[in-house]
Automatic annotation (TrEMBL):
One of the protein's GO biological processes: SOS response
Gene name linked to the record: recQ
Record organism: Duncaniella dubosii
Assigned keywords, A-Z: ATP-binding, DNA damage, DNA recombination, DNA repair, DNA-binding, Helicase, Hydrolase, Isomerase, Metal-binding, Nucleotide-binding, Zinc
Protein name: DNA helicase RecQ
Cofactor(s), by name: Zn(2+); Mg(2+)
Amino acid sequence: MKERAVALLRRFYGYSEFRPLQLDIITTAACGRDCVVLMPTGGGKSICYQIPALLTDGGVTVVVSPLIALMKDQVTALTANGIPAAAVNSMQTEAENHNILQQLFTGRIKILYISPERLLMEIDRWSRDLPISLIAIDEAHCISQWGHDFRPDYTRLSRLKELYPHVPVMALTATADRLTRDDIARQLCLRDPATFIGSFDRPNISLRVMNNPGKSQRLRYIAMLIDRYRHDSGIVYCISRKSAESMNNELLGMGYKSVVYHAGLSIEERNRAQDRFINGDVQVVCATVAFGMGIDKSNIRWVVHNNMPRNIESYYQEIGRAGRDGVKAEATMFYSYADIITLQGFVDESGQQAINSEKLKRMQEYAESSLCRRRILLSYFNETMDHDCGNCDVCLNPPERMDGTVIALKAMSAIIRTEGKVGFTMLIDILRGASKRDLIDRGYDRIKTYGAGRDLSYPEWNSYLSQLIQLGLIDIAYNENNHLKVTAYGAIVLRDRTPVTLAQYKEPERRKTARGRKEVIPEPELKPAERLLAELKEVRLKLARKEQVPPYIVFSDKTLLEMVRVEPVDMDSFARVEGVGEKKTVKYWKPFVTAIRKFKGIAESLGTGLSHEETLLLLNAGYDVNGIAETKGIKPRTVYSHIVSLIRQDKLTDFSAIITREQYMRVMTVARENPDGMWDILNSEMPDGLPSVALAISDFLLRQKEK
């Protein structure tokens, strides 16, 4: 089974080995055992149910997903690799869905994606007539009330085990703690499921948190990312529709290609925005958390959270949309206490206040931490890392410590003198001696600490007050209009003048730009490898536009980087590049190899017999004549002519998949008894071109006998 699985991986996906746990999961499912699979976004979950579908001779693999974007994305990628797949969902007409279901029952579809709602409508009829080899439940955390995205429709999926008791069920999710994992197995009625937990470490993603840098600095930072990855894509996640709209308008005003995505838009508007982003027509999408589920776009190089997410599960899933190809990516979170106030309101309105409040607290602890951020994330998912990652802001720029005792005393004294009736902004205004009307009307300009912190800027005070909250000296009274209070511990520090150590404030990176205009940055001088990569991306883009698919469906950035490393100059070497399957070898080798040969200064022609070599490659991969014709876009007769040439050149010696013994003997008999009329007789009995193959085989056998 392992050999077959690796052969299928190489043939259809172009990879020579599986990632950790994938093969174990595949063999477990293929042996008929239920399993729960926990792998991070971009960790390779889809391979775990797609390969078992190819390993089985009969039956269909049904993939249950609530994400139409995932269905479309996966089906496009599978068919591009030569795997018969389809989806049934509400975005298609009933006629389209009916046609797909007809193909399903005739055995022409190997993998079917379907929503839980539609599956439950169809399943009673299917249980009588449709052989199913595997049921995969994607986004399985949706079935658990302990999960971060509970969906009541998912709970009805327990019926699957009633109707298909002997069919293995694979439950997959990117984010689930132990409580949620156990609940998934219970809700789906899984029988002695094997549990697989992949590593959550995504070392290629650099992690960073910035404490309320202000609107202008946020925009400068996002603009810097867009410019740094000008040929790739990024996502800005926002807490509300209004803030997503605002961010999009700001970026458009700066001259960047941006779109907005949120649930308030029509389906057509959302689909148009998503398609423009997937196809690379825009550089960035400004979106609420409704965006991105199921998108497999491989060249998202950065994700920015304009606001703190409500829990670590959501945060980890969203940053996981960057760097899915394993290439360097960046994830930055902007964080402020205003976010916590807003999110706490969401928690209070939820039906599970206790658990959601605890999840929000853990998210806040991550944002405020001065420890390695990756270790905190991995610890949340019960994974231990015994060293700092070296690729987060805390590791790369350890905070410089300073004596913050005076700062702490000034802040706490001001809170006490205002009787704990001011919030974050008002306290900073008092300390900095602002002349705002509401401050003066309330008499705060007459307290002793008014203006005591003029020596510090607003961002500095914002940073230091946040740290005082993290240290437990100050607390936010959410039930009193978010006023600041001195804690019991803070009162002791204030009374005893206990030393307080704070992290030194650092000025964020700045870019000098004209207001409202994008800074014009010249294209950097590229190294040879970078120039070749840019040319291969251009080839990919032209092919993608011609085929009307996203560029990453043609090849991922990681595969293009492998081409840059290997520099294949013929079909054979191109076929050996990691990420290049057999169908894509035949389909794409010429334009990419031509570009590489031109880059290397190789002037010789690619030759004229290569179409025959493509046919040989597909024959060796197990394609039949009709499959080769379909893949290459030629007629079966032409394929037979290639086969004749290959036999005459002694390049093809196994004919069992091309012609039966009975067909061969029939051709030989007619050729002997009626040589003048043989073509008229045989062309009515067998495919046009097959008699020529039989004659070529006869000549081959004579040559072998003479040798």
